[in-house]
Design goal:
5-stranded antiparallel beta sheet, 30% helix, 204 residues, 6 helices, 27% strand, alpha+beta, Alpha-Beta Plaits, Adapter protein MecA 1/2, 2 domains, 4-stranded antiparallel beta sheet
Length: 204
């Protein structure tokens, strides 16, 4: 299990299929609101609090999607009590407690808008770009933490995101950093059109 805080009121949690197997949860069972899934959810929230200080003392939304080989990605967002208010601005209204289900299951309704893939080897990055080229995506490239960090964005259908992940996962791995961290601290190589510029400068 890996937790990333991507905003003040939002965290992203990666759960590998090995994590699920150790808990006796199969891939299809994650979408059912059974006791093992509820226990997993509260373990995730405890980990999020311990590692990044993210607590859920109020209403939240939970969205999840699967990656073919990586596992399950869960996005947890705290919902402000009043429009425009942040989590720290006051108490949550009692009637909003209905939005916070303590027996929370995961819903496969969320579609990712981007992903970050890390490549240690430049040739692997080029190979991934060649397989990714047919997809309508926008890409950026940074260098951070000793790796090439490739940001992929796009308005793709869920099945297309799974295809994209399957392709790039053959050459790289899901990054441990977010695009926001890269924009702030990474060394920019190509801020936009990274895939096109790489393929143009380094043809096969």
């Amino acid at each position: 299990m890996r937790v990333e805080r991507i905003a003040r009121d939002k965290v992203r949690i990666f759960i590998s299929y090995d994590d699920l197997e150790e808990r006796g949860i199969d891939r299809d069972e994650i979408w059912h609101n059974g006791k093992k899934v509820q226990d997993l959810f509260w373990d995730m929230m405890e980990t999020a609090y311990m590692e990044v200080g993210f607590d859920i003392a109020g209403p939240i939304s939970v969205e999840a999607f699967t990656m073919p080989t990586e596992g399950v990605v869960v996005i947890v967002t705290r919902i402000p009590s009043m429009p425009g208010a942040s989590h720290d601005d006051g108490e949550y209204a009692e009637d909003e407690e209905a939005y916070f289900e303590r027996d929370h299951g995961f819903s496969p309704r969320s579609t990712p808008t981007h992903m970050v893939v890390a490549f240690r080897d430049f040739d692997d990055l080029l190979a991934a770009c060649r397989t990714l080229h047919p997809y309508p995506v926008h890409t950026a490239l940074y260098h951070y933490d000793g790796a090439y960090q490739f940001v992929i964005r796009g308005d793709l259908r869920p099945e297309q995101w799974e295809e994209v992940f399957s392709l790039v996962a053959e050459y790289g791995e899901m990054s441990r950093v977010t695009s926001w961290v890269l924009e702030e601290y990474g060394k920019v190589i190509f801020a936009d059109h990274a895939m096109e510029q790489l393929l143009q400068n380094f043809p096969a």
